[in-house]
Specification:
The structure is a single chain. With about 270 residues, the chain is α/β, with parallel strands linked by helices. The chain has one domain: 3-Layer(aba) Sandwich (Rossmann fold). It has an eight-stranded mixed β-sheet with strand order 1-2-4-3-5-6-7-8, with helices on both faces. A hairpin with a 2-residue loop joins β1 and β2. α1 packs across α11, α2 crosses α3 and α4 runs antiparallel to α7. The longest helix has 14 residues.
């Protein structure tokens, strides 16, 4: 296991492949998940890329730090991790809150960002009423009180089957997140307003959404793509809020296509 203390938080992370000699992709999780959601995408990208995956503060095996968080806290953690692994620039692939982290980093440290894959995300997700109700429900009954509702928004009914081992695993992963860390990030998402940051994005960007996403529906992600000059918009069939789980091959192909269009020499890494 790999851990590093950055910005006063112990981050659990994993590198795959040669992150200094290959173009780097940094994968950024959704609220309530850990970095295992990307495993099948990374496997399909093979040895052409280096990858860094991590549990955001308050999630997985990373420490909680001092919640509540700001989106800039998450972005600063990602910037520090990219610096730590010795990369000069990275393609950022973030889903849901992870997409917001990627947008925030593109504003905070554009020098680190070669391109963006923004999955099932938006400059603003939900409103104060939605997030306050969710936080209150967790205060009363823990993450178990909201897990069924979240799964309904994330996955189609056909996926939410008791004989689907992948679904059972995703449900368990969500339910076992630290409640304090989860609430801390709920507040970060509640307070995030990234419209101006999205309009200023200059690096190549593709906005991706699962056709069955109940959390950030296709029309919302389409509106994000419309904000970003030159952004592409892709719908993944047979996926909900987490295409990296339900349709990893399709998402990997989108990432590969974006990377193929970049000037790879501009993404060179610090020599070892």
């Amino acid at each position: 296991m790999q851990f590093v203390t950055l910005n006063g938080v112990s981050l659990h992370y994993r590198t795959v492949g040669d992150v200094r000699a290959r173009p780097l992709i940094a994968f950024v999780n959704s609220l309530g998940t850990d970095f295992r959601i990307w495993d099948d995408v990374v496997a399909r990208l093979g040895s052409d890329f280096g990858a860094v995956l991590y549990d955001e503060r308050g999630h997985g095996l990373s420490s909680i730090g001092t919640p509540p968080y700001r989106m800039d806290d998450h972005a600063a953690d990602l910037a520090a991790l990219i610096d730590h692994v010795g990369a000069q620039r990275a393609i950022l692939c973030g889903v849901s809150m992870g997409g917001q982290v990627a947008m925030a980093l593109s504003a905070l440290r554009p020098d680190l960002v070669a391109a963006l894959v923004l999955c099932d995300t938006a400059p603003r997700i939900g409103d104060d009423v939605f997030w306050n109700a969710r936080i209150a429900a967790i205060d009363r009954g823990g993450l178990a009180a909201i897990v069924d509702g979240v799964m309904e928004r994330w996955f189609a009914a056909s996926f939410r089957s008791s004989d689907n081992a992948l679904y059972i695993g995703c449900r368990a992963m969500f339910a076992r997140q630290p409640a304090d860390g989860y609430i801390g990030s709920c507040i970060a998402v509640r307070e995030a307003e990234l419209t101006a940051a999205a309009r200023r994005i200059k690096m190549p960007t593709v906005c991706v959404v699962g056709e069955n996403d109940g959390s950030t529906p296709p029309a919302l992600v389409r509106s994000l793509a419309d904000l970003i000059p030159g952004a592409r918009y892709e719908i993944i069939s047979g996926a909900g809020h987490l295409p990296c789980v339900e349709q990893p091959a399709a998402l990997a192909e989108i990432v590969r296509t974006l990377a193929a269009g970049l000037e790879m020499e501009s993404m060179s890494h610090v020599p070892s």
